Amino acid sequence: MPRQRIEDYQLKAINATLSHVWNNNEYYRSKLEGAGFTEPKIESLEQLASVPLLKKDVIRGDKQKLLCVDPKEIGQVHLTSGTSGKPIYTAYTLADQYVYDLLPKYLEIFKETDADVAAIALPYEFALPGLGFQRLFQFAFGTAVLSLGKGGYMAPVDKSLELMKEYQATVLATTPSYAALLVEESEKYGIKIGEDIRLKKILLTGEGCSSTFRDRLEKWWGCEVSFFYGSTECGVVGVECSKHKGYHVMEGHVKVEIIDTVSEKPLPYGQTGEIIVTTLLREGMPMVRYRTGDIGYLQKARCVCGITMDVLHLRGRMENMLRLNGEDYSPFLLEHFLMEIPDVGMWYHFKLNQGVLKIEAEPFRTKLSDEQLAEKIRKHMADRLSIDCQVEIRHDIPRTFGKATRVFN
Ligand SMILES: [Zn+2]
């Protein structure tokens, strides 16, 4: 679509959403009235900045506050994992699940068809990712689905790999750490990646990672690996095209803004700040100017793939930023430099102690002694970042079926 048509649609969809929340939700209405609105309407996309922001702590642990439909209209409830506090609840109506989630289809980004078999190794219990991807592949593309989950009772790792082999999975949707775990474990169970399992594509979501971590996964799995950025609260937000130059914002589903975290003023293209998401046309629990707690910047759509949707560059979660020598560093940037060292494995920790960075890393198919490897990491990080860090080589960094915790602030 030409840019102007996308923006016309977004303005209409935002106004429809504002009108829906104004008419059906006390919290949203009182916030809008408090900000001086006498009707639920903005005249331009720039005016969206006058709509109050929605903070996470307002809705944490509350099932009702944002509900915009009669409870009997709810088709499904999803919860966040609650790793950083009480969970956030989102209620989807059937229309949210089967119309909103599936349309528009973004055919240039998702090439999957009924000839594909998608293995979904994402949490299914109450979380959005497993069920969301299941619906997307099954109902939008007619793709067969293997609902693996993440190492649960019915599909532990060995059985998951076995099923992917038996049913000749062509697509895998999972987290970066679980993609690493599956490929590591495949060797233990004698399953040959590239022969027994031949994937065309992996979609990564749930955790961010650096492009070097991705490169390693691409090598191990022998296929393209793309990022998918979304959340339980907002659903899909951005997806990478085959050029891998950032996330195309799913502008049919969401309006994304970037704000300065202190002044809360919108930032122009190219400037880094907090990512704000407004869901478009959702019924059950629309998110209006939701503060995601994620950091990134927007770029005007100029991608060689031809898609005209803006591009989002993600820098990680605010709470995971590492403050070193008076500057905030994205853990993805540090991971990027760490993963440049081929002797380092894919499991590591960054620990910040009184401003000093300690890296715990595992050796990977290396002839170096632990001492030599530690020295190599120290030197490499100092060269790349001008930062002195402590390094401990460990052989026992725990694997996880949940979200991988790599940063300890
Ligand atoms: Zn593109």
Automatic annotation (TrEMBL):
Record flagged with keyword Ligase: yes
Signal sequence interval, chain numbering: none
Domain AMP-dependent ligase C-terminal: 331-408
Domain AMP-dependent synthetase/ligase: 63-277
Keywords from the named record: Ligase
GO molecular function, one term: ligase activity
Pfam families referenced in this protein's UniProt entry, alphabetically: AMP-binding, AMP-binding_C_2
Domain of life: Bacteria
UniProt cross-references to InterPro entries, sorted A to Z: AMP-bd_C_sf (IPR045851), AMP-dep_Lig_C (IPR028154), AMP-dep_synth/lig_dom (IPR000873), ANL_N_sf (IPR042099)
Protein name: Phenylacetate-coenzyme A ligase
